[in-house]
Input
Amino acid sequence: MVKRLLKDLLARRAMFLFTAVPGVLVFLMFFGLYDRSRSILALHSFPDLLFGSSWFPLKGQFGLYPFLMGTVWVTLAAMILAVPISLLSAIYLSEYAPRRIRETIKPVVDLLAGIPSVVFGVWGVLMIVPLVAKIAPAFGAYSTGYSVLAGAIVLAIMVFPTIIHVSLEVFASVPRALREASLSLGATKWETVKHVVLRKGLAGIIASVALGFSRAFGETMAVLMVVGNTPIIPKSPFDSAYPLPALLANNYGEMMSIPLYDGALMLAALVLLLIVLVFNIGARAVLIKAERKAE
Amino acid sequence: MDARTHISIQNLSVSYGRQRVLKDVSVDLPDRKVTAIIGPSGCGKTTLLRTLNRLLDGMDGVKIEGQVLVDGENIYDPKIEVTRIRQKMGLLSQKPQVLPMSIFDNIAYGPRIHGVREKAKLRQIVEQQLAAAGLWDEVKNRLHEPASRLSVGQQQRLCLARGLAVKPEIILGDEPTSALDPQSSRIVEQRLIELKADYTVIVVTHILRQARRIADYIAFLYLGELVEHGPAAEIFANPRDPRMKAYLTGEIS
Amino acid sequence: MGFRQRKAEEMVFKVLMIGSTVIVTGSLLLIIGTVVVKGFPAMNLAMITQTPKGGYYLGKEGGILNAIVGSLELAGGATLLALLFSLPIVLYINLYKRRKSRLAVFTRFALDVLWGIPSIVYGAFGFILMMRIGLRTSLLAGIIAVALLELPIMARAMDEVVRLVPHSLQDASASLGATKLETALHVVTRQCLPGIITAILIAFGRGIGDAASVLYTAGFSDRIPGALLQPAATLPLAIFFQLGTPYPEVQERAYASAAILTLIILVISLLSRWYGRKFQKNSIL
Output
């Protein structure tokens, strides 16, 4: 008997320790990356590194700005494509689609979320890159196809599931009786969606977009394979870009052989982590608050 | 009963999947009276109410048979425009459902949708409806605050005023006082009685005493069947069906 | 606004909505279709039965068995490690703590935040961890990085199932004199087994498909890894490297490898869906 209770007590303690892991891990990642980037932060100030434009590791110049802008460009362009399409699909699935269609499409969206990013990349190279190269002249531009636009298209498809999934949950949390209140005033379904459902779910929808944004911001392999990777700030969607995650992925090989290079890359990872954390924590906080309100 | 029939329900059956929740219900509801739909929980009261403004339309697995005539017009006629039917009927739900917007916009929402654009006209409608609901003095200084800041009782009165702003003919109440405190309940009940001067009022209630207080006409449902209906005074004084008797004495509830 | 105009607006948006839904579903079909159509012609038996011979990346003989096995070993190990952490966490926040307790809410929050961290950052962190404990790029280092990546995915998926276990079931077990641990292990875990397996499969699928986290940690090798401390090739990286060569015949192999990876993912997805459905059917919840 005592043995059983002792076992239970020990298990309780051990499990508590395990439960601390996720919270601790977030901090560990932050401090680990910070620790490794101290070498470069000791020589250059953080704003100089972040907003410096020249990237010549061999000369000891590590300006991250072109990469930061590359990420921002690709991510924003992807969001411009992904947000309307995802939200319209989510509205359709939640408000209009018959159950049979909804239950068929939801697994498809989940499946899309499970496709490895390398496969997205291969598909992008096979299909989107040539497409962009082909349409560029129509816009008076020349492009190899390896461009911001190609990255944005591939990324947009990758964030569909995130935005759709979260906003479907947000729409589901809007009470049916509230929709009926609007309908029984003689509003059409669309008017009800526009004025009531979207407004009621606004915070959650913004959160879903923020989660999509942070998902896109950190995506590495698929983007890396289609954006061209030239460290210049892009001026048009047909230009190539070099996003931050791609920088990290392309240079792990050399980083231990050039002084300070590892510090610069770890700083890049830290910047990436911080931006994604801000968006994620904000979005999750909004969602938790909305969930509490709904109860 | 001398009243004209406003809503005529004819052989109405509703099923959710394989489950039949309303079985061949036929009843005429009188114009400008308060009709109470009563019965034990799960008897189909709310379903009956919701078929009246076609809120069950398009729900998965719901099958509706029979007819509902409003002013002699079958509202389930496929050619009919559902938003027009719904505009004719204001709905008051169990819990007040204020729209996620200001007090002013809650009332103005319906008129705006139906094409009222002039600000002065909207303001007039809002003031008139809030005054009629007895809310004007309480909220006139905070018309542009979110309606969700009102108390639950005030919210329900706001919902009623909102429904009246689109000029309906019929008011549907689905246990409209169940979330309210006794005092607010009284106010809402009183409003419903006043409103029968101009509107046909149909209220689902599980509170027998409320039905006694407000109803002119009673429809008693039991397990999806319409067991008994008629003028309230007659039914309460002299119930015929044994199930009705049992319900009135509290043996089934 | 006239009624006709209101209806017209609704129609326009309905068309846009259906169009968007078609784009979303169509893109999945297009991706799978393209990869399969491009990949299958280049596939042959040697690809999945042989390791790369000298000059494989120049277009010579061989296959990617090293990467297939490497990926399976790596994702398998990582999934096992992630399970070792996920299960206690999920049981603790659902059984030992009230489900809405501050610790439970915080832990879910932390898991969600971890879920959102990009895999390349896991790779970089894994690399730091690896240096700190004196490990070199190896199967083990890769397993650690991928396990961290899988942890939030697996734990959250399990949590969704375990939190549905009714209190009455716990109470029933407790009233028979069982300790919490016995309840957790014998009643709850068994009750949720299909859900737990689904969570494991989802995490495994994510682990086997991820490239960015293993880039820094697992290394790459033409040999099938035989021990934890040897470097390991993975399928996603094999695809990436093959596509990166200038030789069309090697790029073809990248397509074929992508088709293999997609196939593996689809099988895992269908398996987890099948298990999930079975769970719904047998569940007493």
Notes: Strands of chain A lie at 55-56, 61-62.
